[in-house]
């Protein structure tokens, strides 16, 4: 049987600390969050691998679990403070939502299907998580009912970033994800200042393109 606590410490020390993650509160959250509880049954051994994982299907909802070092750097870039209002887009079974809640955030975890949401609630309850509200909806549309958000995390890559998500940022808020439009992916952070949005690149990274964030096919004449 795997010693998941040991694997978790190894993940933090060898994958995350060495990848320019310096936030002590984030490192502590990653060491406290039992990542193995947020994978489908029978696939727990993949929990601490340094790769992106894709689960689910088109009918029940597909989601991406970002590699630990990518997820950690995206969350660090969002600079989440206690009491921050956060939207976790494509939250899957809720791992990223748990990590951000351990930073003191109030998290809306947006799942793309009812089955995913039910699984997320069950697993988060098993962890005695607080400050997380799991909702179901179109991940590309966000969750306007609870907007504005201080931070938005997209769990995966996008070719097109919907305006609906950016518009749900609070003034001074930030959105992080993987821009895969050019083929060579890069982690980016969008920031809002009034009605304007700026974008800065963080580091090279790849992740699966989320189905609802694919660029529409163009016709050539």
UniProtKB/TrEMBL annotation:
Q: Which UniProt keywords apply?
A: Methyltransferase, Transferase
Family the UniProt entry places it in: Belongs to the methyltransferase superfamily. L-isoaspartyl/D-aspartyl protein methyltransferase family.
Question: One of this protein's GO BP terms?
Answer: methylation
Q: Which domain of life is it from?
A: Bacteria
Record PANTHER family: PROTEIN-L-ISOASPARTATE O-METHYLTRANSFERASE (PTHR11579)
Q: Which GO MF terms does the UniProt record name?
A: protein-L-isoaspartate (D-aspartate) O-methyltransferase activity
Q: Identify the SUPFAM superfamilies for this entry.
A: S-adenosyl-L-methionine-dependent methyltransferases
**Among the entry's GO cellular component annotations, what is one?**
cytoplasm
> Which CDD domains does this entry report, sorted A to Z?
AdoMet_MTases (cd02440)
Q: Which InterPro entries match?
A: PCMT (IPR000682), SAM-dependent_MTases_sf (IPR029063)
* Cited Pfam families: PCMT (PF01135)
Question: What is the protein named?
Answer: Protein-L-isoaspartate O-methyltransferase
């Amino acid at each position: 049987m795997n010693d998941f606590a040991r694997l978790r410490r190894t993940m933090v020390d060898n994958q995350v600390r060495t990848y320019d993650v310096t936030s002590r509160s984030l490192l502590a959250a990653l060491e406290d969050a039992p990542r193995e509880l947020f994978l489908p049954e029978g696939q727990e051994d993949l929990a601490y691998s340094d790769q992106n994982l894709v689960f689910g299907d088109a009918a029940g909802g597909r989601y991406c679990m970002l590699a630990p070092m990518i997820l950690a750097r995206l969350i660090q870039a969002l600079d989440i403070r206690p009491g921050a209002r956060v939207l976790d887009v494509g939250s899957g079974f809720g791992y990223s939502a748990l990590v951000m809640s351990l930073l003191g955030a109030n998290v809306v975890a947006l799942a793309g299907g009812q089955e995913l949401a039910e699984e997320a609630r069950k697993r988060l309850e098993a962890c005695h998580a607080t400050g997380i509200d799991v909702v179901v909806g179109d991940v590309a549309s966000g969750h306007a009912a609870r907007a504005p958000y201080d931070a938005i995390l997209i769990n995966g890559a996008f070719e097109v970033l919907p305006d609906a998500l950016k518009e749900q940022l609070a003034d001074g808020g930030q959105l992080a994800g993987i821009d895969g439009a050019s083929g060579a992916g890069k982690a980016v952070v969008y920031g809002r200042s009034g009605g304007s949005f700026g974008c800065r690149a963080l580091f090279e990274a790849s992740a699966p393109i989320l189905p609802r964030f694919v660029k529409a096919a163009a016709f050539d004449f």
